[in-house]
Amino acid sequence: MGLFDFLLGKSKKKATTNVNKTIPNPGNNERNGNQLWLDAMNEVDDEKAENLFLKSEKITESMVDLHFTYLGLYKLYYRRREQWPNALEKCIEYCKKDIEIYPQFIQEYMKESNVEPRVPAFQQLAIIYEKQGKYQAAIEVSQLAIKYSQRDTTKSGYEGRIERLTRKMRKESDSDKD
């Protein structure tokens, strides 16, 4: 098939859609999913999105849906950390909740997918702790991420993050001795 045949729609092959396997079908009745978290992610008004996420958190029975609800909440709160009171604290809270449910989430998720997802809560929480100067807490989150075989989107990964945080702790400790 030539380029012009393709452009004119004379393809011999049927076009296939590239389905994103990382976001499950929220309406999958087999796992009692709800659509609210997906509606919230598509909502342009952040306050309405927050309300939808919070409703989703209350009614969700699926760990997969709960993970995506928490994901939406901590991303929303991190984005609004400068504008909304207590948004950063709420971001931390939902990162912790997402990390806490990780074992149940991954068990349920892997029934529907053969690709283990990256859960950004680990990296987000490590970044926040590092910015707050809580290096030991950031190291602990990074170690937990490694335990769960999670990937960091940085070049050196969680291992490099731990090395960098350890250097910062030593430097801070050395400056305290002076």
TrEMBL record:
Residue segments, region Disordered: 153-178
InterPro entries referenced in this protein's UniProt entry, alphabetically: TPR-like_helical_dom_sf (IPR011990)
The organism's place on the tree of life at top rank: Bacteria
Gene3D superfamilies recorded: Tetratricopeptide repeat domain
Entry protein name: Uncharacterized protein
Organism: Peribacillus glennii
